[in-house]
Amino acid sequence: MRVIAGQARGARLRAPGGARTRPTSDRVRESLFNILGLRVQDAEFMDLFAGSGSVGVEALSRGARRVVFVEIDGRAAQTIRHNLVHTRQEARAEIRVQHALGAVRQLARQGRSFSLIFLDPPYDRDWPALTLQVLSQSRILAPGGIIVVEHGRRETVPVQVEDIQLTRQNIYGDSALSFYQLRQGDEPREEE
Q1: pLDDT on residue 82
Q2: Which helix (H) or strand (E) holds 70?
Q3: Count of helices and strands (H, E) across the chain
Q4: Where are the alpha helices (DSSP H) in 21-173?
Q5: What Rg value do the Cα atoms of the chain yield, rounded?
Q6: What pLDDT is attached to residue 189?
Q7: Is 126:132 a contact under the CB 8 Å cutoff?
Q8: Tally of CA atoms within 13 A in the half-sphere of 95 that contains its CB
Q9: In angstroms, how far is the first alpha carbon of the chain from the final one?
Q10: Alpha-carbon dihedral sign for residues 160, 162, 167, 170
Q11: Could you give the CA distance from residue 169 to residue 89 in angstroms, rounded to a whole number?
């Protein structure tokens, strides 16, 4: 696993040991960032269920302003920290060792918002729908922002969750990337 482009191009990344994490392949990462293109520049980026942090590290290498990594597993968080130091990207990163849904709610209470949110939850579970629900309710996606869900090819993901709508889906072997945005005409509502 390596950084594909940007400042840290070619740097090798560690993956956490054990079967609990499934790092996003180089091929899927490269396709993801080709699709996102210049949107990554100066983006506030969140990497949920971060695992090795390879997607967030790639975002930093390509010019993201800041990346928040959310990973509940302490060993995986240590791997993220190592990868950030190894690629000299730690100054613009924040690692939260906590449950993804709790982190989203906490960041929303702090008034944070993100233009790009990537989530790679465990496959074959209801995590995509549940996480999209919490992201929608939290109003943490900036106007014009994109949520990308990596999931198993055969997994069914929702077409719409509240005001977040599926806009694109790409298949890569056993994996898929589903892209979501706020529905046209939906503006983030103020919290009451």
Answers
A1: 96
A2: strand 66-70
A3: 5, 8
A4: 26-36, 54-61, 74-86, 100-109, 127-138
A5: 15
A6: 44
A7: no
A8: 24
A9: 45
A10: negative
A11: 30
Reduced to 3 states (helix: H, G, I; strand: E, B; else coil), residue 51 is: coil
Q: 66-70 and 44-48: which strand pairing?
A: parallel
The number of residues in the chain equals: 192
Distance CA 15, CA 26 (A): 12
pTM assigned to the model: 0.90
Inter-residue contact 118 to 56 (CB < 8 Å)? yes
Distances (CA, A) of 160 to 25, 69, 93, 164, 181: 27, 25, 30, 6, 10
Domains in the chain (CATH in brackets) are 26-126+137-154+164-182 (3.40.50.150)
Q: For residue 28, with 0-12 CB atoms within 10 Å meaning exposed, 13-18 middle and 19 or more buried, which class applies?
A: buried
pLDDT, residue 18, reads 58
Give pLDDT tens digits for 15-70: 887 545 667 777 899 999 999 999 999 999 999 999 999 999 999 999 999 999 99
Q: Which of 119, 60, 122 is nearest to 94 (CA)?
A: 60
pLDDT of 160 above 90: yes
Of the two residues 164 and 126, the one the predictor is more confident about is 164
pLDDT, one tens digit per residue, over 73-119 is 999 999 999 999 999 999 999 999 999 999 999 999 999 999 999 99
How many other C-beta atoms are found inside a 10 Å radius of the C-beta of residue 108? 17
Distance, CA of 122 to CA of 125 (rounded, Å): 7
